[in-house]
User: What shape does this take?
Amino acid sequence: MAIFNHLLLLLSLVPLVLSYPFVPPTCYTKVLGMARDLTQWAADLKRDPETSYCMAHMPDLYLDVHNGCVMYKMRTYISLVEGLRERRCAYTREVRKLGVTIRQLFIFMSEKCHGELAFTSFDCAALERRHTAY
Assistant: This one.
């Protein structure tokens, strides 16, 4: 019976231990993850048949949070998304959602994580080049 109780206790603690976040996300890890996700999301929207028409005129989006020019790149991209004039593009939910999420990352980087981020390069041309992997 004691073995059964220990086994039951162990089986009830395993899901609890596995679901506990051992490393709480820092501002840096949140920004890094969001930038990686947004870079991939923008590339996926360019390939998606439903949104490729709208995204064809948009530059490739590559967000390197270590590059000092990333803030300028995000501001420019946000203004391009907001400036879409084509009726079909202006109401495309996924494209609008991308713009809103980039704005959230911009605010997060400029206001919430301001002291935690350190830019290791200031190469604006590197953000303009086509990158296939983050």
The chain has one domain: 25-128. The chain is about 65% helix and 0% strand.
